[in-house]
Every structure is written in C-alpha cells, then in structure tokens.
C-alpha cells in the first residue's frame, strides 16, 4: 500500500512539473486564406507577442472571440508605428468553405490579422488543440504563457490582462484608453 501511495505522489509531482515547464508553440508552415506562404518563424520574426487562436466560420463562440479581439486591437494608439502584438487566427474550415472564411474575415475586419489556413488540421493536431476556439498567448520567442479553451463573453478580459502585463514587461505601448487615464 505504501508503494502505491509513493508511486501516485511521484506521478502527480511529475505531471505537475510537466505543466510548470514553459513550452513553445509547435513550428508550422502553411498558407494564409489568400494563398500566401506563412510560418510560425515568419510570425515570430516580428519580435512581438502573439495572440493565436483557432476558429471556423461555423463556430459562434469563435466569431464572438474574434470580434472582441478586433475591438481591443482598434483601441491601440498606432500613431507612433504599428501594433505592439500580433493576432493570428488559424482557420479550421474545410477546403470548400475556405473562400467563405476569407469573405467573413474581410466583412468582420479580421483581415487586419494574420489568417493562416490549417489544411487538414495539421497545426491543430501538433498543438494538441482540444476544441475551438482555443487560444494561446505567446511570448515573442514562441513560448506559450497562457492557454484557454472555449469562449464566453468576458473570457477575453483574462487574455487581455495577461497580454497587457506581457507588453508592459517588454516595454510596449498601451491601449488608447489607458494612455488617456495617465
């Protein structure tokens, strides 16, 4: 009995350590919804933090999440340059609805984001995505610092708080509304 308890404790400890260690998002190469080549290395070469999410046109929570991040994106003061972070919205639609996904992205204004197409769900499988939407917050080096599955209104606040903390740590700018408060 004592051996079983020790084995269970060791297993739990090892499991906890595996989650405590920072992991990098898996490398990928694909094309975006417009057919342009895109890779994780290209995205990370900007040296910016990345909000990366998986979405599809048929997924209502995905669309709500992207709308929230689009609103937040528009709150940044870019008069001194470009946005201090990237949004990468990986499309999980099938080949037949890829054009519909691009049309929806343009209509909603999400075409300001990077829109990789996950042909055959290869990226989704490599990343161990359980369900969509699933969101990852990456440091500029690709290290995952936050992961969230699903979306309910208000969920974006935790991601935004973590993003703002990361931007502050690396000395990037704040949204317009926060600058006006100072």
Approximately what portion of the residues adopt beta-strand conformation? 15-25%
Mean pLDDT: 86
Structural class by secondary-structure content? alpha+beta
The whole-angstrom Rg is 18 Å
Question: Would you write up a description of this structure?
Answer:
- Helix content is 42%, strand content 18%.
- By secondary structure, it is an alpha+beta fold.
- Strand 1 and strand 2 (37-39) form a beta hairpin.
- The model is unreliable at 4-20 and 178-182 (pLDDT under 50).
- The strands form two sheets. A four-stranded mixed sheet has the order 4-3-6-7, covered by helices on one side. A three-stranded antiparallel sheet has the order 2-1-5.
- The chain is built from seven helices and seven strands, in the order αββαβαβαβαββαα.
- The chain has one domain (23-181): 3-Layer(aba) Sandwich (Glutaredoxin), CATH 3.40.30.10.
- It has helices spanning 2-20, 40-44, 60-74, 98-108, 122-127, 155-169, 176-181; strands spanning 29-32, 37-39, 50-55, 86-91, 116-117, 134-138, 144-149.
Which features would summarize this protein structure in a list?
182 residues; alpha+beta; Glutaredoxin; three-stranded antiparallel beta sheet; 18% strand; disordered C terminus
How do the strands and helices of this protein lay out in sequence?
Layout (H helix, E strand, L loop, with lengths): L1 H19 L8 E4 L4 E3 H5 L5 E6 L4 H15 L11 E6 L6 H11 L7 E2 L4 H6 L6 E5 L5 E6 L5 H15 L6 H6 L1
